[in-house]
Amino acid sequence: MPALSFRAKLLLAMMLVVAGVTGATLYVAQRQFQETYGRSLSREFKSLTQNFLDKQELLLTSVKQTCDTLVKGRRLQDALAAANEDASSDRIYSQTKGELETRRVFPTFFLFLNANGKIIAPPESFPEARELIARPRLKAQLELVGQAVPAMGEPLVGYIAPKSKMEGVSLQLIVVTKVIDTTSDETLGALLMGFPLPEVSGKAGILFEKRLYAQSFTEAKSAELAERAAEQLKTSANPPETLIESINGIPHRPFYEALPTNAQFPKAYLLVLISIKEAIETQRTLRANIFFFGALGMLGALALSLLLSHGLSVPIRELVAGTTEVQRGNLQIQVPVRSRDEIGRLAGAFNEMTQGLALKEKYRSVLDKVSDKAVAEELMRGNVALGGETREVSVLFCDIRGF
Prior knowledge:
Elements: H1 6-71, H2 74-86, H3 90-102, E1 109-113, E2 119-120, H4 127-133, H5 136-146, E3 156-160, E4 163-164, E5 168-169, E6 172-180, E7 187-196, E8 204-208, E9 211-213, H6 219-233, E10 245-247, E11 250-258, E12 268-275, H7 277-327, H8 342-370, H9 373-381
Antiparallel strand pairs: 1-2, 1-7, 3-6, 4-5, 6-7, 8-9, 8-12, 10-11, 11-12
């Protein structure tokens, strides 16, 4: 492999520097952009979540106040005590319905649990409640809640998903309030009331028991989102940034928030999808701008390196050529001094060196003509002092006759 020239090395070095700076700029810019936009998405998600929780808390406050008023009423306590004794539910349900209508409170359904936590079956005039407890899974779930009635302090809050003939499966917010005899402090049972959930803003829904309850998505899309979200929640409550959901061709990032429920109820999550289309477009524009200016920088560096390499490589080539001539014995060679920098001073020093070598060679040739070669060499080496020196020598004179 042939060795690279100085110009090629300089060009390669400049290109690598520009490419490295462009790559580092792109990496840092993208990281900062992702962090900034990620915080923006998190703030938007928290705002939507807090909005839903505030509306739910407002509903819960009203429901809890209504339930607290009802369970402290003597009439309801007497009716519930009677229902515990003779298992007759007409009085307790009819009386409670009348009081709720008087207070203009209209739950989706309400049920009573007896002192043992068992459901007091409503009369036939309450088809919604009867339909609810006719489902074995929901009935078992409510009776599981009923087991906590004796030790219950504050009302229990959770979610259930009853099936209605008119609306299909709908998610309900459940509040369970303990009923205590105000005279004897005896636990009489509990009042269970269900209400529709507050509306969820944006592209969001409630994930409950592997089903997504949302009005923003089609049934097929809700099922698809629920399946993926349920799988993701098995590993982590925080979906990775790389998880993208496409809604009508627009990319969205999913966010999950566990909703506050008591342990007796299944967990529920608020699932929110936030569009990242603008973020992707902005990031694409940022990347294109960085590449564009990086390319401009590359062209500028190329032009500059060509100019610098020309200013450096030409004097260096001339010095190399001059050195070759000196090796061949041409001591009259002179290289042009093109600048006043280090390269120019080096060219000047080269010229002085060749002049010195030429002068030394001239002296050697002259001495070789007028003196013995050995004496000339001693003179060139500086071994002979000027002014002469005293030595003891022997002189032989021979063949003098007739000279």
